[in-house]
């Protein structure tokens, strides 16, 4: 809405954050091409405040500058390249197999024998189990019928941390002393760190025994601990933050993909026929099959574009201040409050309307703290917070005709006109791009392929329409319930 009304750049305010929203891939490219060696997403003030209060180490989301760069260089290894992600294919396949077991159990318990309620909750547990298995090299039981109490407490703490971070963002600081949200926020983070520390310490003891026996170590956590390039405290901080980075994205992408496929059986059948052509009927899809399945990859790309995108770090879109030349309906030619036109007089103070509030954690953003930034004719002072409004860009008809339709074929080679390279970048850009992208893609591709190989997915027979609400990523406003009809002869 804001992109259509106010043009490619607009200002919004949420809590104490003053945001410059970027809603054009052309402008976004101008912005990101000016990144320095140490780009900063945002100040991550709330996360840092917990670390500082508890005297805990920073991780890849809270660290900045040269220290962040050194940390990221270590974390990138064994994660970032597609060939390195394949090291975890067997582990991910094991978790996908357990997901299929749970899916069949949930399905069999329904009165119809085919309906699975709240698919997103099951896929959240799958994603958390998958990333935990990679990071901790141990299973934590998220997919068991009876989740271990310690693991359930950990899961609950993640949800409480995000929930209370919203209150901490929008409420004044003095309210922390009279309302319970701040202590709950800190306690939730304490549980997350304690859970990770316990598993890391357990792995340390295992490694000591393996080294004494002359056994070669493997696995991601083993690499971090044995490399000697990070202190134990840095490992604690990094693993805790990496753990939270990919769970929502993976689970919600799969949830929306299944929802879309259930409502378009033609696209689902195309995917199924692709699977049959690539994967023999007596085995499951493997990592080496994925490059041969362009429709599978296109469905995930289209879901990331159409059904999941992070609307922006500050997911609020009030009537705001607009740059001259905006292509919105109002077409105002007012001076931007934080951006001064090069060579122009200072901008007047403009009225600010009351924002509509949505859940926000300002992570999908850039702060250019090293230098001023010029975009077009405008100079933005350093320390300006730029919000990358991916939702607006990936729903722009200029680059995506019929943007509200789920059309995976738009990503296939030879279909339509090419997209602007910055029009849909759900995993980010440059040295701050998502470190776990290849792992997340492998999880999503293998899980979706296994599900469609085994089942035809149909919508809730009660005809419940699901829409999206913002919770960092776009999530369903109500449980996604789907029917899973067994395919004859599926392995």
Question: Which helices and strands, and how do they pair?
Answer:
Blueprint: H1 2-6, E1 9-14, E2 17-22, H2 25-32, H3 45-54, H4 65-76, H5 82-85, H6 89-109, E3 115-116, H7 119-136, H8 149-170, H9 181-212, H10 220-227, H11 232-245, H12 247-263, H13 265-278, H14 294-308, E4 340-341, E5 365-367, E6 373-375, E7 378-380, E8 385-388, H15 390-394, H16 437-454, E9 455-459, E10 468-471, E11 473-476, E12 482-486
Parallel strand pairs: 2-8
Antiparallel strand pairs: 1-2, 3-12, 4-7, 5-8, 6-7, 9-12, 10-11
Characterize the structure shown.
The strands form four sheets. A four-stranded mixed sheet has the order 1-2-8-5. Strands 3-12-9 form a three-stranded antiparallel sheet. With 491 residues, it is an alpha+beta fold. The protein has helices at 2-6, 25-32, 45-54, 65-76, 82-85, 89-109, 119-136, 149-170, 181-212, 220-227, 232-245, 247-263, 265-278, 294-308, 390-394, 437-454, and strands at 9-14, 17-22, 115-116, 340-341, 365-367, 373-375, 378-380, 385-388, 455-459, 468-471, 473-476, 482-486. The longest helix has 32 residues, at 181-212. Strand 6 (373-375) and strand 7 form a beta hairpin. 45% of the residues lie in helices and 10% in strands. The radius of gyration is 23 Å and the shape is globular. It has 16 helices and twelve strands. It starts with a helix and ends in a 5-residue tail after the last strand.
